[in-house]
């Protein structure tokens, strides 16, 4: 890796000095047009290597010629190459560079093209549909402005596809009517397959299976006839989804195989490798242009360094600093000798204090664990019964009293979880995990989960991710998401009618460690300078009034301690009525071999519908009611028993697909009950349904024969997911 960096640096410096020596040459408009057309031609032929090389040459000559139109076209072609190579972050980067130059011109056709392509990437590749549709709407405005009916047709086709992709068929249907009504006039053979596919998706959603099936078959036929491989692959994919929904698994599987084959042909490995080399050269050219901007400054600095007078002054200054350093060492040494005698006297006192502190810490942990269990058990009942009331009495769904009850229960649960986490970190019982994850996906998940809060305060969330950051990293994504969740939710709570910006930049690379600088910035109410140190203390809420922002005052304290696990610290910059910025740096591992291995091991399991019989072992009658209602709501058959002995008795007579086992029960606890079940030779999956913290019981649960653990109150979707996986494995 180091050798590659040195080679790239040598190439970069040599190219820079060669360009400095050569005189600038102006090029004709005809020559620039020929180059951009050649690059576009090779792109259409999927010859990405030649397309990127010629685009690089065209871009250089266009910038020298100060031709904004040719520069824009060159950036569009480069971006389109990266989009075809699935390098979507780089594609976005070059499209935005092209948009900067396009805005300097009066060419609305180019602006329309860039907005349309950005809409395609954000909708169909990044899955950021709101952002993508905004770009499509911009493209549509330019199409209407220049009266390009065929482009209006294409843009509306893309908008329809985007809405259908997220299941908003009613929103997309108006555009589908326009497409069907104008297909003969503005459509052609290249768009026929997509039009058929969209009609198939729509009628499939409406339950018109016969029409949908015909449209999908026509889409596939059109794709084969026109050799539009990309559209053909999507036709097979959507047809596969349709067949899967109908229950025709064999045909669905066959179409999915065809989709994969076509995709592999489109992204041939040899082409990608050659195009990658060409892409590096394009990026080198970008770096070279940046170097040219600062070349004059470097020359001035070089002259200053060469002056002997400056060197002498620096030498004298360093010598003076060294003398001060030696004097301080001498002074500190004498001071240390005095301290040693005092420290030896207090050492014994410190040891006694340490033992008392450790004893207090153990008592604190036991107290927190006991209290959390005692609180979670009734909270499970409160949350569960509240949900049952809403389900069974629809007229109470909008009741402010019921909403307040549910909010209060979840608020209390959040407080318990925060206290438990603080306790776990302080007791050094939290260990970071190493998982492969997509950092962009994690950020988007945080934003989606906080969308209600953002909308409630009329805020916008902006994400800026450095394209130099690898797509896949290895680290503890759960803790990272928790850090960002706490900081962004704080920013949204204390900002009204504003914006919150999440910026990620690659700071440095050391071996396989990528140091990423995170910045969360808002333009909210700000924090006074005197209060900035206090906000990281536990249970501190600065400037809170009776009707003000809700919270436990633990969020920022948890953030600071979690960053400590990452060997990182957090910095704050804030001014009253201006806003607040939090910054921190975390190093994540980047190893493509590990990442590819994990991705290749991902499997999709499609299981058939079956009747699931569940045994619930629970002594609390309220919790019995809640759990049973939750299980039966998913059409599972559920039987409840009060204790472990009753469970052993019924298991001797009946078969169950899965057992949900409470841990803290009278007569015989969940661990002992599980051991006796395993001694009976019963291998039915057992899931511990408990209010204990998972880390406290994991070891004993595994040794007893328990397959998985869920903490009450639990997410019903997570429970059913675990049940499905365990039954499938069994």
UniProtKB/TrEMBL annotation:
Which InterPro entries does the entry link to? CheY-like_superfamily, HATPase_C_sf, HATPase_dom, His_kinase_dom, HisK_dim/P_dom, HisK_dim/P_sf, Sig_transdc_His_kin-like_C, Sig_transdc_resp-reg_receiver
The record's keywords, sorted A to Z, are: Coiled coil, Kinase, Membrane, Phosphoprotein, Transferase, Transmembrane, Transmembrane helix
One GO term in the molecular function aspect is: phosphorelay sensor kinase activity
Q: Which residues carry this modification: 4-aspartylphosphate?
A: 662
Keyword Transmembrane helix, does the record have it?
A: yes
Q: Where is the Response regulatory domain?
A: 613-727
Group of enzyme by EC: transferase
Q: What is its EC number?
A: 2.7.13.3
Histidine kinase domain boundaries? 370-590
Pfam families from the entry? HATPase_c, HisKA, Response_reg
Matching SUPFAM superfamilies, A to Z? ATPase domain of HSP90 chaperone/DNA topoisomerase II/histidine kinase, CheY-like, Homodimeric domain of signal transducing histidine kinase, TPR-like
Q: Which reaction does it catalyse?
A: ATP + protein L-histidine = ADP + protein N-phospho-L-histidine
Question: Where does the record place a coiled coil?
Answer: 277-304
Give me the segments passing through the membrane: 311-330
- PANTHER family xrefs: HISTIDINE KINASE, HYBRID SIGNAL TRANSDUCTION HISTIDINE KINASE J
**Know the name of this protein?**
histidine kinase
Provide the species name: Flavobacterium glaciei
